[in-house]
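Bug #77: duplicate submission created two jobs. Keeping one. Sequence:
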Amino acid sequence: MKAIRTLFWDVGGVLLTNAWDHEERDRAVEKFQLQKADFEVRHKEAVGAFEEGKITLNQYLDRTIFFQARTFNKEEFKSYMFSLSKPKPEVLDFARNLAGKCLMATINNESREMNVYRIKQFGLSQIFDLFVSSCYVGMRKPDEKIYRVALDLIQKTPDECCFIDDRPANIEGATKVGMQTVLMRDLAQLKKDLQGLGVS
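Kept job's structure:
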């Protein structure tokens, strides 16, 4: 096995809380007293285009929330969406310590506005050399194509790379293209699994 020279990281659920997953949406539904079933149907119809950068956050909200009059405005809702993002400080510190030792990149599913906000808010550009975000490349995990694009961008062979994610389906996509993988459950296990791959 070749030495691991590149670490690809998921963002939501690994380095930070999720950006706009079911838990975050449930909290927004409760806070803004939305009809959950209707909102989730509309979200499901829009989320692919949203995360692949084909529609903006404003367009997503027009389709899912502001298709009718509300007692709150779009800026209030967006501020709440952004406020739900929280760091996982210990994992961020660990990643920061690896930044000089490996090429560091992300492969993540995220809408453009949320992605830009989270990169800036949590200093991710100080840790990562490359962001292979779904909103930039127009495809999402676990589609094998996003992992192939990531490899093309850094010009490394799959066996030189490790992908870290908290979701088995996303790990399977990376495995199919030949990457080493770590399914993250907690930081101690992540450190142990990376050590097993020769990353200290």
